Structure formats: structure tokens, C-alpha cells
Amino acid sequence: MGEFSFIQWIRERQRRRKDVILGIGDDCAAIDVSSDRLCLITTDMLVDGTHFDLEKCTVRDVGRKAIACSISDVAAMGCQATVAVVSICFPNHSTERFARKLYKGIWSIADKYNIEIVGGDIISGDCPLCINVTMLGRDDGLKPIRRSGARVGDMILVTGTLGGSLLGKHLHFKPRLKEGLILNKNFTIHAMIDISDGLTADLNHVLEESHVGAVLYEDQIPISEAAVKMSKETGKIPLYHALSDGEDYELLMTLSKGQAKKILESPLFTKGTFSCIGEVIKNSGIQMKFLDGSVRRIKPRGYEHLKS
Amino acid sequence: MGEFSFIQWIRERQRRRKDVILGIGDDCAAIDVSSDRLCLITTDMLVDGTHFDLEKCTVRDVGRKAIACSISDVAAMGCQATVAVVSICFPNHSTERFARKLYKGIWSIADKYNIEIVGGDIISGDCPLCINVTMLGRDDGLKPIRRSGARVGDMILVTGTLGGSLLGKHLHFKPRLKEGLILNKNFTIHAMIDISDGLTADLNHVLEESHVGAVLYEDQIPISEAAVKMSKETGKIPLYHALSDGEDYELLMTLSKGQAKKILESPLFTKGTFSCIGEVIKNSGIQMKFLDGSVRRIKPRGYEHLKS
Fold this sequence. Notes:
The structure is a homodimer.
Chain A: H1 3-13, E1 20-22, E2 29-32, E3 38-47, H2 59-75, E4 80-91, H3 96-110, E5 116-125, E6 130-138, E7 155-159, H4 169-172, H5 177-186, E8 191-194, H6 199-210, E9 213-217, H7 225-234, H8 238-244, E10 251-255, H9 257-265, E11 274-281, E12 285-289, E13 295-298
Parallel strand pairs in A: 4-5, 9-12
Antiparallel strand pairs in A: 1-2, 3-6, 4-6, 7-10, 7-11, 8-10, 9-11, 12-13
Helix pairs in contact in A: 2-3, 2-5, 7-8
């Protein structure tokens, strides 16, 4: 693979944003931030065998996922994603065709979300494919929504349905950027996070940062069809997958009862986008209110990578 | 290694900057850019076996180098480095002790340059150690110095001495951030780049972006002691190493004769920091004026990683 011819190909095909003063091709890129108050920044690294498996997905999927993960992080702050830099370590002897497919995956989602790839680093080594995306965002005059703002009495809402993302959604999810922005502009959200590690694991991040606890309602968790399908393979109940599987990249938020009601009835969102799955309580940790009326503590379970 | 305990350790030890509104611990970091015009961004990925060799250096050296490379990119724009995010893929079964040493290397230089590590991603995989740094910078009211501004008649200046960096400098170089800023504030620099690929290779980037050529003076190239030492091992002449070796991370710039004279005589810099090594001409490519008076075309030679 010719590194310079590949970079030239990227430079020619990259769509440009107006606020990018300097794109690919210099020591740094430069972005006009003169009308901004805050610059958001997030970074995600993905490596073959841990976050994806090139024997089970295409390299285009990998490019797509790498960008989408970072967009989801900006969405979780209720802010606007703008530009990204992408570093890739290709396994030695990778072909330029392979590299171009990766970039086509990157653009397939970057273009859709109006994100310009303003720079990067292309290297190779005796290693599996490794890709790192750093994404910048802007506040657009809004306050970023942190993990640490959950308050006792808050309702807990999530978008979409959960569980079994390994059956496909972990590669093809749509980051909730639009929803995050609408939420931040039109409602008062106390805390927000995207579900990458798993519902209970990510809820636990919010609870720990906010020094509160939560009770979840067993019958309100939005279980995905994939979770049901997955449960037939694993022998575990679908609820287990909805609670524990990672990489759904849905949004989880806490907010007052009044605001929650407004969101659930709002015409700004597609009907059924949100589920109210529980509430924030004083004690630490997560409890579950089961259908039989009993309330028991549950352990936050992290995302178990692709080992299964 | 406990990922969360490690991140907690990082959060507690990280020095804070005033313009960082949100540091490590949320979906994104947030930086106050309300007084800035431009946000600079650069990213560098380093992998064991290609950019460093853990059999020949410490993991602390690796952390140091990863940050220093990115600072050098911001220096090459004549701007100020501010914050960074760091992604690390640790080989499976790495110890927390190993991880902490890497971070101590990162801080050893980040602290010195007042750079806050505002976020990152810690993963592991069946792969060699891989580290990615994305660095942000600010223009501080100055114009970033691009590669593309070289003009016919410009003098070509470099900082420091060149060649043989593999003998140690490639790990322990001091990025020329201060010099880059002084140059941008006090002089008119037409084009600038840092020498990472090698003198002729990086000069060639400037020439190609500026659509000009250059002639170098054989007797003016600042050959390092390391280049002389290296030549005894390789059998090549020291000049070869000064022209072709990479990773000296010195600055190369082009500017008018008058400005060059001012810099060479300026009390703002330590005496001997700069050498005038040639001039920009109309034709494309690089020529060398040899001591015997002959002028011959030379080929830009890229940096050959750690293969030697």
C-alpha cells in the first residue's frame, strides 16, 4: 500500500465543512471556533478480536462502527459532533483496496452526520487492525449534559430497545445525535450517558458519579427482538441480555417526573422512542422491582466483549 | 489490570488546566474555547515494533514519546498545545504497574508543557502495545504556519542538529514548542514543518505543497554527533544520516532573507539554534550544491522505521 497515494485519495474525496480552515495535509488541522463557547472531545479505540471480528464482519463495518461510537459519545452530552481525526494501524501487507473499504465505511456515516475527517495517522505493524477515532463537538450554546447530575426522585428513561447487539446492532446502530440535541434544547435533562458497556453497567456509572441509587421496573425494560433471539442461543432469559449486553448505543437519562412525562408525549420524537424504566433513589447501587412485587439488589454487569 | 481502578488513579493524579471545564470521567471532555479563534488538532499513533521497541526502551519512554510527537506537530504550526486525549491498547495480561509506568512517561512531558490529559480509552487485545495521542492547540491570536507557503527566494532554516536519532533522540527529543511560538509571534515565517520523516522527506512535503523546489548547501547541513556515530555502524557518510534519518523533531522553515538574518542574530534564541541550509528555487524537487561546486539533484528519502 502506498501511504501517500492513499492519503491523496482520502484528501480528494473528503467532503468539507465551512468551519474547517485547514483539513488533511498539514501538521495539524485547524477549526474555526470563534463562535463557540465549548469544544467537546472524545476518543475511542477499536481493535480486531476485541471490538469486532474481521472473520464475522466487513472492514467497511469496522470503519462505520469506529465513527458511530464517537458520535454516540457526543450525543450523550446533548451536543453537536463536528470533525474527527482517524488513526489506523493496518496489519503489515494490507492492500490499498482493504484500506479504501475501511474509509468508505467511515464516510458512509461521517457524511450522513456532516462530520469532516480533518486528519489522521496511517501506520502499519505486526498486529491486528486497530483504529482510533477522536471526535470534536460544539455546545451550540447549550450546556453539555453530564453523568453526574442525577437527583433523587428522577425518572430514568432510555431510547430504543436493548440486548443482543452482537447479532448485528453493535455494527449497524444509529447514534442518537439528533435525539440528544433535541433533548438538550427542549427539555431539562439532569444526567445522560450512552449505553456502550450495558444498561446496568452504564446506569451504574451515572449513579456513582451522582452519588445516588436506582430502582428499575422489571416489566418496563425495553427488550429487543435480538435479546429474545440471543436468549435461545445462550439459555439465559431475554431480560438478562437487555440488562447486561453492551453496545446498543442507546441513550439513558434521568430527569424530573414532569419532564419525563413531556418527553414521553412529545411530538418531537417518533412514538415509542423512549421507555421509562425506573427511578433514582437515595441508596447507592441498583435494585430491581420484579413483577411479583419483590425488590432485590442486582449487580451491574459489564459488557463482555466478543468472547462469547 | 483493573480498568476502573487504573482510570481512577489517572483522574486523581492528573493536573488540571483552568480552561478545561470537564476532564476525564464523562462521555466527552469539554474545553472552554470562548476566547479562541482556532482550535488546532493533530493525532499520532505509535505501535511496538514499528515506532519503538520495548526490548530496547522502557514503557515510560513510550509514553513520553507519544505525547512529545504530538506537541511537535503543534509546534510546527507555531501554535500553543493545550489538551490531549490518549488511547492505549495494552497487550492482554499487561499489569497495572506497566500501565502506570506508561502514564508516568506521559505526564513527565505533559506537565512540563502544561498539557492536560482530558480523556482517553484504555483497551486490551491480542496485539503489541499501541498508543494514540490526539492533541489540541490554540492559535493565541496568531496565524497557524502552514506547509504550503514557501516562496521562491526564501531561505531554508532548521533548528538543532540532524541524524542518527535512533541512538536515543527519537525517544528523548524536546519538542520545539517554545521556539515555534516565538517564531510565529516575532517573525514572518512562510512555511514550517517538523522533521519526523527525515530532512529531505519533510522538506519535500513543504516543496510539494508550495509548488516550488529547493537547493541545499552540502557544507551547511547541521550534522549531529549521533549521525557521525551512526555512520561508523552503517558505513554510510554522516551527511546521509542527517538528510535521511527521521524523528529528530526539529523545525524546518522557509522565510525571506531579511527575516532569516534577523532570526540568526536574534537574542530570543540560544546561539546556534538555527542553521541556514539552503534556499527555495523555482524548479521542483531538491538539488544539492556540493563543496566542489557541482549541483546535483537528490532524491527525498523517507524515514525507514526501526527496521535497521
